[in-house]
Design a protein that fits this description.
The protein is mainly α. It has seven helices and two strands.
Length: 141
């Protein structure tokens, strides 16, 4: 990613792209999220350095209680949906589901979800017309 490569194999692909896996696509989405966050880097600006806040809070202060932290912390984090970053006790209490199981559940939910059509009726009719035109040309050739 740092060298500018944007894809080696497609998301969800297995066996040199001979097979696609919705479960692997969900896992790949997590990895892509981590890489994107890494590539974004750390913004260094007056408002992100928060020198005034650091001086105000002091050595023994609590940065979590500041308005500045509340306004900025979500942007700096990457919160995975599948990979588990919880402590072992919480992970065990929540059923100790592994990433593969959570990926399977997420993929099933995504596939089962209602989605609006990608094409409006006019575009679908036009594509059908083009397909019919070229299919008829092939049949007469």
């Amino acid at each position: 990613a740092l060298a500018g490569v944007n894809i080696i194999w497609g998301v969800g692909s297995l066996e040199s792209e001979k097979t696609l896996s919705p479960v692997k696509a969900v896992l790949d989405r997590e990895i892509i999220g981590v890489v994107r966050r890494y590539l974004r880097g750390i913004e260094v600006a007056d408002n992100t350095l928060a020198e005034v806040v650091i001086r105000d809070v002091g050595i023994a202060g609590d940065f979590l209680a500041t308005v500045h932290t509340l306004e900025h912390f979500r942007r700096e984090l990457y919160e995975p949906r599948i990979l588990n970053r919880a402590r072992r006790e919480r992970w065990a209490a929540e059923g100790a589901k592994r990433a593969a199981e959570r990926s399977r559940d997420e993929a099933a939910a995504l596939l089962a979800a209602e989605r609006p059509p990608l094409l409006d009726d006019a575009a679908a009719r036009e594509l059908h017309r083009i397909e019919t035109h070229y299919r008829n040309k092939e049949e007469t050739a």
